Structure formats: C-alpha cells, structure tokens
Amino acid sequence: MPVFVFSVMSVIILLCAHDQKSDAFSLHILPNRLQFFEYEAVTFYCEGVVYCEFVHKVKGKIKTCPKGSSCTITNVYLDDSGEYWYENEEGIRSNSINISITAGSVILESPAVPVIEGEDVTLSCRNKLTPSDFMADFYKYGVHIRNNSTGSMTIHKVSKSDEGLYKCSIVGAGESPESWLSVTETQTDPSSQPGCHIYLVLRTVFTIIMVALLLLLVGLLHSGKIRATTPKLNSIS
Fold first, then answer.
1. Contacts for 54-58: CB closer than 8 Å, 24+ residues apart
2. pLDDT per residue as tens digits for the range 12-60
3. Is-contact 176 164, C-beta < 8 A?
4. Could you tell me the end-to-end alpha-carbon distance of the chain, in angstroms, rounded to an integer?
5. Distance between CA atoms of 160 and 121, rounded to whole angstroms?
6. Quick one: three-class SS letters along 169-225?
C-alpha cells in the first residue's frame, strides 16, 4: 500500500510540476500586436527563463538575435511574417505568436497574447499615412460588425464567443490583413487544479500511513525487547 501511494504521488507531482513549468514559459512581443508595417521594429522577449533562442517556423533560429532573454528586429520585412516561438536551454518550446507584416497602409492592432475572459479589449485600425482619428469599419470573419469615427472599437467583458478573425478598413486607405483574437479562461494557479488537490490529499494520507507504520515498528521492537529480557529476569530469580 505505501509503495502504491508513493508511486501515484510521484506521478501527480511530475504532472503538477509540468503544468507549472509550461505556464512559466511564455513568449511576448512589443508592441503587443500581431500586425506590423514593413520596416517597423519588433521586439520578442521570453518570460520565465534567462536564456532562450528565438525561432521562426520557416527560417529556423534567428541568427541575428543574441542568445538571451530578448531579441529586437530593427526592420521587419514581408518574409518575416509567420509563426515565432522560443526554446530554452533544455529545448523546451514556448507558446507561439503568428505575426503579419504588410506593405499596405492599414493594419489592425489586436493583442498578440490571449485576452483573459471578462477583460475589455480594444481593437484599433491604424493608418500609416494619417495618425489622426478617422472613420474605420471592423469585420469578423468578413462580416461587418461595427464602425467608429475614432478608428477603434472596444469589446467589453470579452468571452470565448468573441474569438475569431478580425480585420478593419479605412475609406481611401485600404484594408488590413486578418488577425486571430484569442480569448482564454480566467487564469488560475496550477496548484489549484484537481490533480494537484489529489496530490495534497495523497500526501497527507501517505504521511499518516508512514507515521502509523513507524509507531507499529517501534511497538514491535519494544515488545521484542521486553520478551527478550523476561527470561533473563526469571533465571536470575
């Protein structure tokens, strides 16, 4: 029984540790958006580690990036579009971010990382040639959903149903590429997951069993000593 409990505990400990390690590795990007104009600067940085290597899905490891915790591409080009992630010293891969580089005049500024359910999220239509406010139209899966004279739209208390492909357009300037808005559930502590709760219960049970066995062993040893000394006492008398 103790061996079985110990084995189960070991498995659950490893699972909980893996979940915590996976959550700790995270790729971020500055500015926090998925679309960029050609020749803009983009900075990637890795969270949860002090050493990482940045990888492009097609190009492989980015040779111009030093091995560290951040990497800045001073001028991005059209072929820099695509999926990026980082790998730590052990070769463990982080989450990925898929960015789009355009030579056009309009981009949609949407978060590069998932938005947490219940938060507000703002999508902005950006005109490369005109920084002031302008009328912008917003689309989800190609269907017009809203227009705004300030060039942005806010989704209040975002939910999973708000996930999808968004784009925007500006009359006389053009249309942005499409980007995926990702929504995730409320963040929780990995230690609060059911598996980790089971681990805590099993750890307590295991401790109780081991203490009981230890007390039983001590009792048996003590009983054996008493039996061993009794004949000696009888012979002396």
1. 54/84, 54/85, 54/86, 55/84, 55/85, 55/86, 55/87, 56/80, 56/82, 56/83, 56/84, 57/82, 57/83, 57/84, 57/96, 58/82
2. 444 444 444 445 578 999 999 999 999 999 999 888 777 788 999 999 9
3. no
4. 46
5. 13
6. EECCCEECCCEEECEECCCCCHHHCHHHHHHHHHHHHHHHHHHHHHHHHHHHHHHHH
82 φψ region: left (φ > 0), alpha (ψ -120 to 50), beta (else): left
Pair of tokens at residue 210:
């081991």
Query: Cis before residue 114, ω within 30 degrees of 0?
Result: no
Residues in the chain: 237
> With contact defined as beta carbons under 8 Å apart, do 36 and 100 qualify?
yes
Give the Cα separation of 107 and 37 in Å (integer).
Answer: 7
Residue-wise pLDDT for 100-117, tens only, equals 999 999 999 999 999 999
User: Under the phi-then-psi rule, with left for phi > 0, alpha for psi from -120 to 50, and beta for the rest, what region is 173?
Assistant: alpha
Q: With contact defined as beta carbons under 8 Å apart, do 203 and 221 qualify? A: no
- Give the global pTM: 0.69
Residue type, 195: G
Q: Is 217 exposed, middle or buried (0-12, 13-18, 19+ CB in 10 A)?
A: exposed
Helix (H) or strand (E) holding 108: strand 106-109
Residue 207 burial (CB count, 10 A): 11
Q: Return the ∠ at Cα 37 (arms to 36 and 38), rounded to 5°.
A: 115
Distance of alpha carbon 106 from alpha carbon 86, whole angstroms: 29
| 131 CB neighbour count, 10 Å cutoff | 9
